[in-house]
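#random but structural
TW: two for the price of one
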Amino acid sequence: MPGKVYKTAMSPVATSHMLIAAGTEDVQVRLCDISSGAFAHTLSGHRDGVMSVEWSASSEWVLVTGGCDGAIRFWDIRRAGCFRVLDQSHTQLGRRPSLLTRSTANKGSTLKPSSGGPNSSAKGRPSQKKMGNGVSIKHSAIARQVRGSGKQRLHPGMLSSQDRATAHYGAVNGLKMTNDGMYLLSAGSDSRLRLWDIESGCNTLVNFETSRLQATKATQLAISHDSTLVFVPCMSTTKAFDLWSGKTMMDLRGHYENVNCCLYNSLDQELFTGGNDRKILVWSPSRTTTEELEGREGQSFAIDQDNWSD
């Protein structure tokens, strides 16, 4: 590999290929063939290193990558170029203007008079003006809008302004797709978690509670078998969030240093976590029932009994 390997992934549904996607310090995503041990081909599009890769759960040809440039790209490995770039401002409630666009609009609004004169309605729609009785400021605004509309056009290769859309304000260091392949969860170095609707590419605006995530390492996320809980390494703890509401359901504390990865076993409903303390911990659901709380001689145990001591 040309540099440090951040993440590797293999498709769970592939039947036609045995490719391993590798995200490295290089801007290109490399697909390695197990049978030959060589590179099958590379995917170019990111402008910085790739920290996370995730295969689709519904198609063996679709790969999702997250880079240090804050972009999440969807690839069809049978074709050149990515076919989708997620934009955090593209939400289910409509597209939100960027901060720069909003600030420019606010400055422009301060220059306009507040009175409802005959030209006030025309000023609100400068692109529809066809008469030359306005000042030069109006013409420059029209020219800027025409140039801006040209940049919004989509054409092959995603060579447009949407190609530079970002999903996070920092590096995308974690990706996890739901078991049905309909939603994608992303984690960034900006300590934000975002849930995406894959079909529309919209940000679902689920407000996950504030958590501190690692910024310099790739993070492995895990989702429960019924896609209701998502397990996220948050420094030295592992938090379980409700996937649809963003609320913190539990904090799993046991590691002495930062947690790097977690894996969920759907058969036994167990969670495995690994950290910098060189420990692998196994978390299993509580199997305590009312019958187990009663002793053989009819004595009841305290529910908060210490189970760690001998």
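TW: number two ↓
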Amino acid sequence: MEFAALIALTVLIGMLIILVAIAVGKQKGEISDQLEQKEEDSVAEESAVKASTAKKQKQQRPRKEKAQQQTFSHPLLASSLKSHSGNVTSLDFSSNGKYLATCADDRTVRIWSTKDFLDRDHKCLRANVELDHATLVRFSPDSKAFITWLANGDTIRIFKMTKKDDGSFTFKAAPEDFPQKHKTNVINIGIAETGKFIMSASTDTNILIWDLKGEVLASIITNQMTNSYAAISPCGRFVASCGFTPDVKVWEVCFGKGGEFKEVARAFDLKGHSAGVHSFAFSNDSRRMATVSKDGTWRLWDTDVEYKKQQDPYLLKSVPCQSSEGSRVALSPDARVVAISNSCSVAMYSTSTGQLEEEFHGVHSEEITDLRFDINSRYLVCSGDRAVRVFHNAPGYRAAIQDMQAMLKKAQNEGMKQRLKQQIQEAQSALDTVLTAPKD
């Protein structure tokens, strides 16, 4: 009996244990389900909050506004050319003085008539740059074509200009672009006035000399660590560059009597700055050069020297100025005026006295990209944002009048005196017109 009772008690205890285990397991399952449900609810709630927040942000996100066109006024501002829808990166005057070419990141090149600069409306002709955009533009010597540097293609593309009966032009790109040769960013291109070669220069101290068909004639290593600027002289004989080193190096591109390419020979250097040179410019006859440097000065040089006899250029003037990385210098074709860009502003100096003649502050909303005088020294033109600013060269008129007055005092021939008096009167009349012209 006792044994049977013990078995019964054991069975009873086992059943109780089993029931307790089942109860505990059930309770854990319910708790787990509740936790999972809470987690799911939490995730769903979090997702809903995120979705709601994103929706609100999307609804509240302001539309991206187009950049406002920079407004600028000055008594010497002749006009603002505003047809581009992108930032203007380069400009160039044709050799005949009739046209101004501008290019921008809106995939167009615009051709403007210089005779319309003083009109209220400024019409232009548009050349489309297919599948790319131009960062540089330069006219051919005969003003019947222009070359561009393609931003994405990293190469030169030539456009021919065909004049129509109504006086406008059609533009046609050459069948093939030049081959890709540069390994770093190209800072300038140009066509020699002689029509014998094309130049392209990159930041890695490399300058290439091309023929007009896209064959490389020569490669120049400038040894300036980096190139900041390079250009062909207006006479078409020289190529010059500047950069990290405190000098400007000038080479002569030599051709034979039959027009065949011979060599690139070192001509002369402009030495004297104490820091790297931002940029330089030639006068129209290539007998003068102007430089602007990181050392806070611009300099005027006499480059009409017998460099083949080891004669060095003469320093004519050294003048303190404000400059910055990317500053450009422009020298008027008659070498009477120097213009310096500093970020978004421009300063104009007399080359005879070194005096600051004019200052234009906040000309563009972005850094000035190009700065040039027209071939008649009447206008100074610069680019920076979507607009191109055209200024009257009042310092040039004043300098011309002063020069002619000095010549008049020395003149002994009566005919010469009369001509000088007439020219002084015409220049003074032109200056008065510029200074008293009504402004918009």
